[in-house]
Amino acid sequence: MQTVDFFTPIVDDPYQFGQIAAANSLSDIYAMGAKPIFALNIVGFPINDLPKKMLTTILQGGADKAKEAGIPTVGGHSVDDKEPKYGLVVTGEVEEKNIVTNKYATPGDVLVLTKPLGTGIIATAIKKGVVKNDVIRAAVESMSALNDLASKIMVELGVKTATDVSGFGLLGHLNEICEASKVSAEIKYDDLPLLPGVNKLASDGIIPGGTKRNLSFAESFTQFLEDQTKIEKLITSDAQTSGGLLISLPPDSAKMFIKKFNERSPIKAQKIGNIIKQKTNTIYVT
User: How many C-alpha atoms does 36 have within 13 Å on its Cβ side?
Assistant: First the structure.
């Protein structure tokens, strides 16, 4: 199987940008329970406007992240572009019978999320220059972390349903699971893990356009609490970069997954809700 993803810089540091872009590109492979084999670079760069050293640094970040994943970067393609862009084409392998998809969630399953939410809001704050360094550090740590450990554990536990949380936000990607599986889901807002500073930034009006569009769509299939604030609704819809895995699995397996993952990962997974029988709405925020 092959996946491809690339985007413009969301942090100021070129090495960190390379790492985040590479981790993000690898995420689709991990979400399917596959093992990456090799990667190709995809690059757009204004070669006459920015130092070549910056491009070298971006590529080094990506190469180091690929090395961490245990795969080589064997080439790629670049174009002269007015705005920098970077990502990877990743080739992975998995036996067909073991592919993890989004269509086997079952009522009674627990929903586990392996990374905190809020990267879209923080990336927008970085662009506006209104975010503290400790908040940036936490977001970079999360975005540059590979989803390999989560993938390995879910494969060990025989998980059949998962997705990575990316541009469509938590609600958008959960909706895809529910529609494919013909079920509904309940999530508890207070159980959602958030990056530090996200509530304050969102309250200050730092909201990316993609997040607003996500919420506009999510309101068509989500029933929120009557007293849910607009800020909380936006956070559930925040467009993520290199987010975690959203996994549906039986309660006992969920407990085992969280235990195994949290023993080995500095970023903690947690239960955020449950799969229920199909109802009028796809998602209920409780």
Answer: 33
Residue 179 within a domain: yes
- The model's pLDDT over 205-231, given as tens digits with 9 standing for 90+, comes to 999 999 999 999 999 999 999 999 999
Query: Of all helices (H) and strands (E), which one includes residue 149?
Result: helix 148-156
- Summarize pLDDT for 246-270 with one digit per residue, the tens: 999 999 999 999 999 999 999 999 9
> In the chain, what percentage of residues exceed pLDDT 70?
100
Q: Strands, DSSP E only, in the chain?
A: 2-7, 35-45, 73-80, 85-93, 110-113, 161-164, 184-187, 222-223, 245-249, 270-276, 283-285
Strands 85-93 and 184-187: unpaired
Same domain, 87 and 125: no
Range of the domain at 13: 2-98
Of 35, 168, 33, 162, nearest in space to 90 by CA = 35
Structure tokens at 231: 């800020």
Neighbouring C-alpha atoms within 13 Å toward the C-beta of 267: 26
Same domain, 126 and 232: yes
Dist. CA 113–CA 217, nearest whole Å: 21
Which two tokens mark 119? 């990267």
Instruction: Tell how many helices (H) and how many strands (E) occur in the chain.
Output: 10, 11
d(CA 192, CA 3): 28
Q: Which of 11, 6, 50 is nearest to 28 (CA)?
A: 6
147 within 8 A of 26, measured Cβ to Cβ: yes
> What pTM does this model have?
0.95
Q: Please write the tens of the pLDDT for every residue from 242-251.
A: 999 999 999 9
pLDDT of residue 171: 98
Instruction: Examine the fold and report which residue of 69, 98, 127 is the final residue of a domain before the chain moves on.
Output: 98
pLDDT tens across 39-61, in order?
A: 999 999 999 999 999 999 999 99
